[in-house]
Amino acid sequence: MKLNSVAAAAIMTVLGVSLAFGSVIPKKPVQTADKTAVVPAQEEKVKQLKDILFKLVRQDEYLDEVIETLDTANAKLTAQDISALSLSLKMIRGNLDNVAALNKTQFAGIQPGLNLSTYTRTILSYSAKMNKKASRVGLLSAALAAKNKKTVMRDAVSSSITKKGGKIRGKNITQLLEEQQAIKQLSADIKNLKSSSARLTATSKWLYIVSK
After folding, report:
1. What are the DSSP calls for 81-108, one per residue?
2. What is the DSSP string of 100-137?
3. Residues linked to residue 171 through DSSP beta bridges, in sequence order
């Protein structure tokens, strides 16, 4: 009986320790550890996606400026004005290519459980908007090219009639041909812009898919 009393006392001691300190398996601390591991990763990804979105918003504003210049009623653009538009489109294209590359780097870093679809969906929305605006620029450029060609043909006939072949309506044939060459370059830059915009939209679409 003495041995049984000692054993009973030992069992009671073990039970007392267990009741005092709770379960041996700490469930809540494990969950907290998992959560704290996810939060920094999500914050970092959100920061990176916001940076991509900021870059897209800027390019969207730049394209609006190009469209406004081309779409101005009765706009009288010189060869220098058109060349400046070409430079703007080259810059926008380079920035779109950069964003498309950033999209690709995000693929491998997207982890399950990260709530990022709100940001990637917005990136996709802006990419699609850029696509539409690039097409709009193309239509406006085509209209400008047609107008310039018509003017060149009309003034070429007029200048051949005049003895001196001087200025016709404020412009001579040399100026008009320079504008025509600038428009040709503008069309090439728009074509490249459309290609870059299409690649951007494709990478944005895949980024949104993997983040869902």
Report:
1. HHHHHHHHHHHHHHHHHHHHHHHHHHHT
2. HHHHHHHHTT--TT---HHHHHHHHHHHHHHHHHHHHH
3. 168
Q: Which amino acid is at 92?
A: I
pLDDT confidence tier of residue 192, bands split at 50, 70 and 90: very high
How many whole angstroms separate alpha carbon 93 and alpha carbon 122?
Answer: 20
DSSP alpha helix (H) spans, the chain: 2-21, 27-71, 79-107, 117-161, 173-211
Half-sphere exposure of 59 (CA within 13 A, CB side): 31
| The two structure tokens encoding residue 197 | 């915009």
- pLDDT for 136-186, tens place per residue? 999 999 988 888 777 666 665 565 555 455 544 556 778 888 888 999 999
Taking the C-alpha atoms of residue 133 and residue 194, their distance in angstroms, rounded to an integer, is 9
State what percent of residues in the chain have pLDDT above 70: 69
